[in-house]
Amino acid sequence: MKIFMDTANVDEIREFADQGIVYGVTTNPTLIARSGRSQAEVIPEICKLIPGPVSAEVISTDCSGMVEEAKKLAAIAKNVVVKIPCITEGLKAVKILSGLGIATNVTLVFSLGQALLAARAGATYVSPFIGRLDDIGEDGVKLVADMVKVFRLYQLPTQIIAASIRNVDHVNRVMMTGADIATIPTKVLRELIHHELTDKGLARFLEDYRNSLKG
Ligand code: G3P
Predict the structure, then answer these.
(1) Any idea what the Cα angle at residue 110 is, between residues 105 and 116, rounded to 5°?
(2) pTM score over 0.90
(3) Positions of the chain with pLDDT under 50
């Protein structure tokens, strides 16, 4: 499972860029707004920091508007992936963009049926939102597991990005499904490295080392 960062905060991405663990980035209009900057400013900077796929979302809701926006976004850098909402007009746009060789990430996916349609329309990536499904009492990770099964069964090349991840447990459970990618908020990514026993164990090793010098 590849790791993407789910943020539009360039400083946070810079913090992780050198560690070699982050393969790509996903943004959305909420994350862009939270960054306090514009999409036009932020996306080129992210594309320079991270050579892998960087998702930038359209705000049009009609097919031709989405296609026009997508062309402009794709012209920013060759690693831009255009995020398209999973609505009828969106899937029409995905088909056109796939014909133009523009990579797409179908977002706001909440059901297996939506995922299949997105894949059949030619989406490069599809993003099930697991946290938001949990919020309404459903099992978001189960949707990802079902999608993995279906995509393998029908040999669909669309990659699955587990999105709307809220905690380390989500990451661990999504990993077990065989999802291609998890896009992880910075806070959760920071938590992922920590384990109480690692800290305790390291403190003990260092203490024993210091004691051994005293002879
Ligand atoms: O990748 C999608 C993500 O940004 C949405 O997360 O926590 O707003 O449901 P959340």
Answers:
(1) 60
(2) yes
(3) none
